[in-house]
Amino acid sequence: MVIVSPSMLSADFGKLYESTEMLNNSQCDWIHIDVMDGVFVPNITFGLPAVEAVARRAKKPLDLHLMIVHPEKFIDRLAEIGADLVCVHYETCNHLHRVLQSIHAKGMKAGVAINPATPVCVLEDILEDVDVVLIMSVNPGFGGQKFIPRSIEKIRRLKEMIRREGTNTLIEVDGGVNRETGKLLIEAGADALVAGTAVFKAENPAAEIVALKNL
Ligand code: DX5
Ligand code: ZN
Questions:
Q1: 63 catalytic, yes or no?
Q2: 86 CA → ligand 1 middle, Å
Q3: Total-model pTM
């Protein structure tokens, strides 16, 4: 069954505790939190105090998506807060190998996110150090954007690369994921789906999570 990681970016920020409780009681596997800095992406969202507030209540693994320059500065702090998976953007790391090592050294899983314009082949020599590749199927920065169809082909290629390298790397996809695109993504080889709008703007978010789980 596919891993479902609802993105809290689309939740009502005035009701963070309620949304976290809803996710705790739902069938979701992870909780996806989008940290942005207004530099790498043209938006600012959760800062660390807000992540901490969610972490205090969350009973599911926290899937942190860092859309920030110099993500290495915050790894110790994220470990203290209790993050389980930390995804950094390939485009923000001059020394990606070192950053991944420091995430692992703190006992967390390490992920690498790639923008729509970044090909999967750039990860070939680092794959064995990556627990999760986060394929961005929209340009990072905002929820509610339109899915970029080319992402399907990227997943196929990445799946093939993982098979070739013999690693246990998971493929997670983020942006414009709903029941329709989710099905295509799973067929192409996705292991985990991030969904913001599809879950939080649904009439019944918990039921939408079940629907995505059962795709
Ligand atoms: C976008 C974020 C996503 C976002 C997805 O930069 O990384 O996690 O919340 O939102 P939807 O599912 O609405 O595309
Ligand atoms: Zn995200």
A1: no
A2: 16
A3: 0.98
